Amino acid sequence: MHLYNKEQAIKRMNQFGQHHRPFIFIINYLQDVSYIEEVAAVDSAEVLYNLNGFTNQIISAEDDIATFSVKNNAFTTLAAFRRIFLFLSTLV
Length: 92
Hints:
Elements: E1 3-4, H1 6-18, E2 23-27, E3 34-38, E4 50-51, E5 54-55, E6 58-59, E7 66-67, H2 78-89
Antiparallel strand pairs: 1-3, 2-3, 4-5, 6-7
């Protein structure tokens, strides 16, 4: 995922909107850095989202609870978890 400044983020969101292409965004409180990605380009190993059922998560039909599916039956490594945590902490 690529970081955008405020002006770049606005331009990118407007482009996606004009072309009717769904996207997600993560914007920090100061609005000086943002992640803007087309939904099709979002890697579920990096970002999981669930926006009122519009999701890249696997939903369990039995209990209607979003669950995380680990690929290849391997658990996420501590290093991968730490990398994602550090990334998200920069947005707070």
